[in-house]
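Checklist before submission:
- one chain only
- standard amino acids only
- sequence pasted in full

Submission:
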Amino acid sequence: MSARTFEFTSESVTEGHPDKIADQISDAVLDAVLRDDPDGRVACETLITTGLVVVAGEITTKTYVDVRSIVRETIAGIGYTRAKYGFDAETCGVMVAIDDQSTDIAQGVDESYEAQHGDTDPIDRIGAGDQGMMFGYASNETEELMPLPIMLAHKLTRRLAAVRKADVLPYLRPDGKSQVTVRYEVSEDGRQRPVAIERILLSTQHRDGLDAESLIKPDLLEHVVEPVLHADYRGLYDDDKLGAKGFLYVNPTGKFVIGGPMGDTGLTGRKIIVDTYGGAAPHGGGAFSGKDPTKVDRSAAYAARHVAKNVVSAGLADRCQVQVAYAIGVARPMSVLVDCFGTEAEGLTNEHVSELVRGHFDLRPGAILRDLDLKRPIYAKTAAYGHFGRTDADFTWERTDRAEELRSAARNGNPPERIPAA
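Returned file contents:
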């Protein structure tokens, strides 16, 4: 009997996409606060449209942040520096509407439910900044331990931006997207692996008067698609396929001149699937950008990725998904769920892996802040091309520093005492 197959698709967007501009502005404001005030509280939202940026939210900090300058510097760095691109960092309007963080929220973060009821553990003092559930995921299908479709989509959009900024293709403009379809094969025991890259879609803003099929498509094939595929993915396509009809689609409508904030309004937090696993794993619903790490929407999602990546790196499973849930103002998670989808290593069960996770990872908000060192100005780098699978920045949640501990504990069969949960 032949193996079962299925196709899965993920997308990415460039840093010049209007939603990603908004994310980058919000995280640039966050970094500016954390640079001088690591305990600052930030919930910063950005809206961007034709000729206008609106920055709103709740920020409580001891430092001064020049929001308008941050907005203009961020937009200029992306490449919107001329009116003919549809947006100009120097001339756009900037409106700022920021208040302090709600004292009702702050009290639950500063003194948790446990602390109010006599718990003296300093890690238990910090409560979750909100209720909700967060997910982390890892898969051994790529060296980054990420799903292949989203990793390839990110690499294509990064390359698209790089050739624009290097003037290799000077007619390109900042806005753009990619989409990648990968075919997977499923074995009789239910394990899945990518076996072919089936289709690629690139949409890119460009100077007027250019034909997508005769000019832009050959250029993107040569300068964007081929370099990325040749570098990392030779076993998943053949050279004849690259030029074949139905493999590469470029600007299918034929024209993409009006782009960026002039073509579409941008909002912080509207690309959460692009930010995470491209749809290959669930998402709790909370966005990341513009939120300081006391917000578990962000910090716990990073911690869950750290857990899942270390499980897979340790060889305990081919795939791992972690869900963690919180109540506002409560330090200890409401629940922690580990699912390895039946891909556990020989001799292990999902229950074994779950016990190892609960014994080696402390998912209380205070412990996450401490263990992942999150009170640093590192967040602007996360705001384009994904928060996970990155090797170009010091993202502590991408470290596999617990893998050997997990591997050793699995061999010995004696997981340590469970870390407290609610």
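Reviewer check: The mean pLDDT is 93.
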